[in-house]
Predict the 3D structure of the following.
Amino acid sequence: MPRGACPERHEILRYAQNDTKRRARNDKGMFFGSFQTAFRIVGEMPGNLREKIRKYLAKQAHLPSVGPVSIWTILFVIAPLGFILYFSFLTAGDFGRILPIFTLENYQALARPVVAEVFLRTLLFSLATTMICLLLGYPLAYFIVMYGGRWRIHLLLLVILPEWTSYLIRLYAIRMLSGRAGLINSALLSLGLISSPLGILYNPSAVVLTLVYGWLPLMVLPVYASLVGLNPSLLEASADLGATPFRRFFTVTLPLTKGGILAGIILVFIPCIGDWLVPLLMGGTKTFMAGNLVYLHFISAANIPAGSTIGVALTAIVLIIMYLCIKAGGKEATERII
Amino acid sequence: MKSLTGKTLLAIATLTYLFMWVPTIILIVFSFSNDKLGIRWEGFTLKWYAEIFNNAAVRNALEMSLIIAIITIVVSTVAGTVTAYGLYKYKFRGKEVIRMSLLLPIVMPYIVTAGALLIFFTRVVDIPLGYPSILIAHISFSTPLAVFIVLGRMQRIDWSLEEASMDLGAGRLTTWRRITLPLLMPAVIASAVLIFPWSFSDFTITFFVAGVGNTTLPIYVYSALRWGETAAVNAIGAIFVALPLIGLLLINFLQKKRVI
């Protein structure tokens, strides 16, 4: 709170300070002394000051309800993020130690070809995944809204339910299907279509397809919501004015659902860019993404400054993408994220 | 659905649904297969489900996951409801800042949150890895969810009922207990039902902050996956797939009974 914003508060503080100084002479020990001082302050306070305290507390009526979670957020959400930002400027010592020596080397290391390649791959995979999710998810949402009829809610639930299942279990299911001894290979082998198992896993397209499998529901939901919110009379008007269904879709429906699309893009892109399980389980080292580097630095190599720097870079990318999408999509995109 | 557009849409939708569901359906089917590797059909059996309860490692992991999920649900829904009430009812400075910072755990990439928490717990403050660290992490990412779900409900309920109750002489607490809370109940239940799978099946963050020797069910599945011990994993997976369905049926049941 800036100085002078709440004059009562300063008066209270000044009064308390003077009083403490006065009482310090006949000190009775830290603890009891301060208690007695506190009681005396309240007891000897002039009436108008007591009134001011009451007013001040009345202004803070939100504190009991909002306070605890705010403190929790500062302690366990903002502070950890602040510390990785801080550590990203420090030097790594031996045995996982962090030396308090300022350096920009960690950030310079991001430009090294090995690391830059991983970041580029991460961006590319995430973009490809988001695009495929949009190309599959929009028609799906459109289908549910236009043709779902009384099954709409059930069809939508069929989209949401996988999202509530463990991500890891779903990855396991995909691997069971597509591994060397998996179902696809054994089916093709027994049908005689192939003579040796196909290597379906461990390549970029396996990673991207699995990412699509993982995050597609997050694209469908906001698009569905914005399609449902569409005013049907606008569509009728454009049809009355002679627009073909094709043109109507591109000049009316699509622009009006922009907010939902952008929210979907944010919702798919963010988990993709931080993913490390899919490259680990489906791709192998040749398809490692930035998330894998965070894991390697933090857990395997215990190089905390380097890991922190990659985390900070990932966060920066996410914030930039969010900013761009929210700016382009306005209030609707923001609301649909939640 | 006779038009060409309709047919194309139907085709895309069908394919997408198959893409989303075939792997998990096959997982469930094969959880009943007698095959040791869980990838071939060799006759019907329930032994993998029995294995979940007979295998001490699985049982302990299940227990740990359940304890964490239940504590997280209780703390997060209570804290979330109270916070949402404060955010909705009072005007104060810094309200937008609080809303934005509550969004942080939802929009941050999991791996960054996970890494940041691990470093914070081990290098900055000395919080033992295990139940304390996992609970702190889960509560941190679950509470915002509850806040936003309850806030959404608050925008739609009729607040004049609260005033009416106070006009008729009910105290603040009585009003909250008899009027406000019942009005918010659907959102509170919804957030509890949503937080359960979130906490129960979270892997990345739990894996980072769990420390050595603390195995939740997803961590058990992960090690089975990596070190190739797949026998009972299909059955565990089937349970994970069934859980949200059970939650959904529960909500449906409560709504029919008019509890919420």
